[in-house]
Amino acid sequence: MTAPKMTASKMTDSMPPESPAHVPVLRDTVLRWLAPRSGGRYVDGTFGRGGHTKAILEAAPGARVLGLDKDPEAAPAAAALAAGEPRFRFLAGDFSELGSALDRVGWDLVDGILLDLGLSSPQLETPERGFSLRHDGPLDMRFDPGSGETAAELLDRLEEREIADLLFGMGERRSRAIAWRIVGRRPLRTTGDLRAAVIAAVGPRRGRIDPATRTFLAVRSAVNREPQVLAAALHEAPGRLRREGVLAVISYHSGEDRPVKHAFRRLAEEPRFELGTRRPIRPDEDESGANRRSRSACLRILRRIEDAPGEIVRPDGDGR
Ligand SMILES: C[S@@+](CC[C@H](N)C(=O)[O-])C[C@H]1O[C@@H](n2cnc3c(N)ncnc32)[C@H](O)[C@@H]1O
Question: Which pLDDT score is estimated for 208?
Fold first, then answer.
């Protein structure tokens, strides 16, 4: 197995806090690829605080955006935007259910879909959400705190071997030792408890990356069923693109990027699709200097180049 590659920027939050506002990553590059046009319909599957959505709406006066996010904390920003912007609509929900969201708003095919995976800055910086390595908080880690198992409940329920497998899958070489410590210290209740269990197993930080980084990422990924959710979205989204439509996915570690790369390469073997670029697009030095969380970002693009069966592309772009 290839261990997910990680860079210090995304993988540790032990850096001084940035502004709680979320700075949209690769914003201008995403815009160049989506090339929003008047009359176009776009889906921002990870609305967050709406940075990318606003950029799309500003870029094309007649463009419309459907925003999705499963975190209830995204809703106020979405409501504020929707109040003054009739071209924007928000649905609380999972991007793996993209198809039913599109059906709900009556959109069949769309011109662009963006998935900006991972955490927003406010999620990471709010200790109560339980994502932070730096601040102690309840061991939660759910994108939607209203549903599903918390990280604490998951780690209480799993067997030691299952925990080790989870960590190993995220490239944690000391997975067995960490799993043994976790089980020995159950019940873990806080992020501090989890971090302390990891440090008891592997020792204190030696490099720039916190020793609990991969463990936190593995647990977060399991709590939110991130691989399954991403796989469902990658299955659904390409078929909802109109001709010239673009699917853009920003990932932040190779465990996220790998399935995107493989899915896009498979699809690009079909005559209907092509890759935007062979290699992932990374932030330039200016962006990674200004926004540390952007440093591990990796953007991949898939474009539809043939009409969907029965697709009518009208000059006003209003074909369904
Ligand atoms: C990196 S942030 C997006 C930031 C956004 N692009 C912006 O500029 O404000 C990722 C967002 O995706 C949301 N999210 C994660 N998994 C999701 C899922 N399966 N379905 C819907 N939203 C999800 C998170 O709650 C978070 O708000």
Answer: 83
Q: Write the CATH number for 90.
A: 3.40.50.150
Cβ–ligand 1 contact at 94 (below 6 Å)? yes
* The residue to which tokens 């419309």 are assigned: 64
- Say how many Å lie between the CA of residue 169 and the centre of ligand 1: 23
CA distance 315 to 42: 17
Q: Give every CB contact of residue 169 below 8 A, 6+ residues apart in sequence.
A: 1, 218, 255
Residue 138 DSSP code = B
Q: What is the CATH number of the domain that holds 194?
A: 1.10.150.170
Cα 26 to the center of its chain, rounded Å: 14
- pLDDT of 3 higher than 50: no
pLDDT of residue 318: 40
Q: Does 142 contact ligand 1 (Cβ within 6 A)?
A: no
Ligand 1 binding pocket mutation candidate from 19, 25, 43, 46 (most atoms within 8 A of CB): 46
Over the stretch 288-300, which tens digit does the pLDDT of each residue have? Answer: 999 988 999 999 9
Domain end call among 199, 225, 251: 225
> Which atom of ligand 1 sits closest to the CA of residue 229?
19
Residue 119 C-alpha to ligand 1 middle, in angstroms? 6
CB 256 less than 6 A from any atom of ligand 1: no
Q: Over the stretch 138-175, which tens digit does the pLDDT of each residue have?
A: 999 999 999 999 999 999 999 999 999 999 999 999 99
State the closest ligand 1 atom to the C-alpha of 50, by its place in the atom list counted from 1.
Answer: 9
Work out which ligand 1 atom sits closest to the CA atom of 250: 1
The residue segments making up the domain with residue 107 are 8-14+26-121+227-304
Asked whether residue 273 is domain-assigned, the answer is: yes
Task: Judge whether 45 and 68 are in contact, CB under 8 Å.
Answer: yes
